[in-house]
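Q: Convert this sequence to structure tokens.
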Amino acid sequence: MKKRVISIKKNFLNVLIIYMVLTSQITNYSVMSFAKEKSEEPKQTELYAKSAVLIDADSGRVLYEKNGNEAMPMASTTKIMTLILVLENANLNDTVTVSKNAAKQPKVHLGMRANQQFKLSDLCYSLMLESHNDSAVALAEHVGGSVEGFAKMMNAKARDIGCTNTYFITPNGLDSQVTVEGKIKIHSTTATELAKIMRYCIQLSPCKEKFLEITRTASYSFTDIEGKSTYSCNNHNAFLSMMEGALSGKTGFTGKAGYCYIGALERDERTYIVALLACGWPNNKTYKWSDTRKLMEYGIDNYECKEIYEQKEDFEEIPVENGCMIEEGKPTIWKEAKIQPVMKKEELSMLLKEEEEIKIEYKLETKIQAPVKKNDIVGKAEYYLGNEKIKVYNIYSCNEVVTFDLELCVKQILEKFFV
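A:
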């Protein structure tokens, strides 16, 4: 009996030891399985897109690019510009009358008929959720008077945003070309400039909230003005449910452009935009989602938002030639005229990698000619990331210096010795 008890105890201890070992291994395995490694910068060969960029939407800084400045067709990603122009230049309650030109647009289309009428806001959902080509033309003709007139508005807005390598011909993004001053121009943009346009749409436009509302809607139904025809639209932007914080986006495809995509994501007070051009052709429809995820994860894993503004307070005083100090509201000739430089309180944050550093160069006047007023600019603080100047702040005078002249000198002497 005693031997049996000892045997049971040994077996129990063996089982306990095995259990502890296994539990430890399982725990270690679990930790290893769920510990996410920081994603590395994608190699250019790892992306399917011929042209791709990742930008910081808050600063506009390009964080990653592959052929980012090469002009290419952009298909229906064009429609983000179409929508923002419609929102900024028309009333959502306008009635849009369909022209023959709009009604004959190729698929993908709503199937509208000539002279049919729609509420403008309804066609905006048709434009973005289903990417209907006829809705794009109907909206363009309503706002610009014609497709050509609207294209001029698109190109003017592109220039205002800072896009110099973008050329719009159509509001729907169908492959097109025109001859301008003897040169053939195609409907095209660059990945960098497409990202700039999206940045304008979601952050800078006065209609940004409505833009986001429309592009994030999952489904939408409406009728024509007479109520005789009913239409349903479903959002085909899979990215909206693919990653946490997805904000907006637009897909596109034509034979020349291939699959294209423009998308935005907000995470931990950081906003990223990815633009992809020529990201595969049939049957490679999912390539754009793979590239988008890869670039978004690279941005999330490697960039942190850091406060970089420095309010320097120890500037040396700057001498003022032919100047006279003001003390207690009165000029005095008995002290050397100087001004004290000062920087105003500001905030400046930026997405930076761990190893990236901001350098600040302070450039101040060595001498200043009187008069100097309070808050006159006396220098600059230039912020650099590498060799790129990213921001410039003014440095101001915090005191006043008037011009020293004979009249002032006589007055000061009289006040000091005879008053």
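Residues 413 and 419 are 9 Å apart (CA to CA).
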